[in-house]
Specification:
single chain; mainly alpha; two-stranded antiparallel sheet; 2 strands; elongated
Length: about 100
């Protein structure tokens, strides 16, 4: 049972890390205003915009004076989940061992 919990924690950690990089790349691309019909740009937007939209809806001050802080808030949330949830899953796996 401990290996299952550890595997879930590891997969969740890898998925959160990958999504964090997607958010970072999407934020950097927004600075250069890329072609919106590029398949890579569309893929990144499809992955990030639903989350960004929900954060903007929940946190009205996410956009301040034309500066969009939504990616930063999403990265903070990812770090929180990695530290709190993944860390506790690893501790649970160690306890079960």
């Amino acid at each position: 049972m401990d290996l299952l919990v550890q595997a879930i924690a590891q997969i969740l950690d890898m998925a959160l890390t990958a999504y964090m990089w997607v958010v970072i790349i999407s934020a950097v691309l927004s600075w250069v205003n890329p072609d919106p019909y590029n398949p890579i740009v569309r893929f990144l937007r499809n992955l990030t915009e639903p989350v960004f939209w929900k954060v903007r809806k929940l946190v009205p001050f996410a956009v301040v004076g034309g500066l969009d802080l939504t990616p930063v808030l999403v990265i903070f949330a990812i770090y929180f989940v990695r530290i709190f949830v993944v860390g506790n899953l690893f501790r649970l796996a160690a306890y079960l061992a």
